[in-house]
Specification:
241 residues; alpha+beta; 3 domains; four-stranded antiparallel sheet; 22% helix; elongated
Length: 241
């Protein structure tokens, strides 16, 4: 792999930036300055330092995004802003995509990756990967709501949801719902099945991941090595970069 492609894929520098840095002696490969960013390296074996920073090779990229309201969970959309627009060009070039979807008006934790196999595993009903959502609703929750959701809420089209945990707030005007599935508008439809309506919805967990409180709406960060390992284990995959 060319050095400039490696640095671009790792979202460290564009190819033009890599070329300029190499000419200035700002790129080291195994401790030696490389003046030509088109030189090939073995990313699994070679150590690359860019402007004093060691660049870790990631075969696949996993990103946590704090999704803002109004964005659709897509890689492109002609009518609405979409979540991958919030990523830098270097990551968009790797064709990251959202793992699952959040409604346009739902905010919070969104996972993006270029690892299709792991994404498929994480979304598979067989894996029972949990997702938790904090919500507010228009009316106080009925007293039996927790039991109804635990037994499996029946939606308007007759679909019986899998068991879901509801922990209501003290005022019963909201709470946290934990699901193991993700049907279309599911939480809104679940609240509708008990005569209520969602007024605000935020995803706060995805499997072992919790939304990073340091991320403002629209901000993103790479998953840590530990978070990636836990996520892959939840997906039933071997640990890997």
């Amino acid at each position: 792999m060319r050095i400039d492609k490696f640095l671009s894929d790792m979202a460290v520098a564009s190819r033009k930036e890599s070329s300029r840095a190499a000419k200035r002696g700002g790129i080291l490969v195994n401790g030696t300055a490389v003046r030509d960013a088109s030189v090939h390296i073995n990313p699994d074996k070679d150590t690359v330092i860019y402007l004093g920073r060691t660049v870790e090779y990631r075969r696949h990229v996993f990103v946590m995004l704090n999704k803002p309201e109004g964005y659709v969970s897509a890689t492109e959309d002609k009518a609405h802003p979409y979540v991958t627009e919030l990523l830098p060009p270097e990551l968009r070039a790797r064709e990251l995509f959202p793992v699952g979807r959040l409604d346009k008006d739902t905010v919070g934790l969104m996972l993006l990756t270029d690892d299709g196999e792991s994404a498929h595993r994480l979304l598979s009903p067989k894996r029972h990967v949990t997702k938790s959502y904090r919500f507010r609703c228009a009316e106080p929750l009925i007293p039996s709501c927790e039991d109804i959701f635990l037994a499996g809420a029946v939606l308007g089209d007759g679909y019986v949801c899998k068991s879901a945990e509801l922990i209501a707030d003290e005022d019963r005007l909201g709470g946290v719902i934990t699901l193991t599935e993700g049907k279309y508008h599911q939480i809104k439809r679940m609240l509708g099945s008990v005569g209520n309506k969602i007024t605000a919805l935020e995803r706060i967990t995805f499997g072992p991941l919790s939304l990073d409180g340091a991320l403002a709406r629209g901000e993103w960060r790479y998953l840590t090595e530990g978070e990636t390992e836990e996520l892959l284990l939840a997906a039933g995959a071997d640990k890997r970069n």
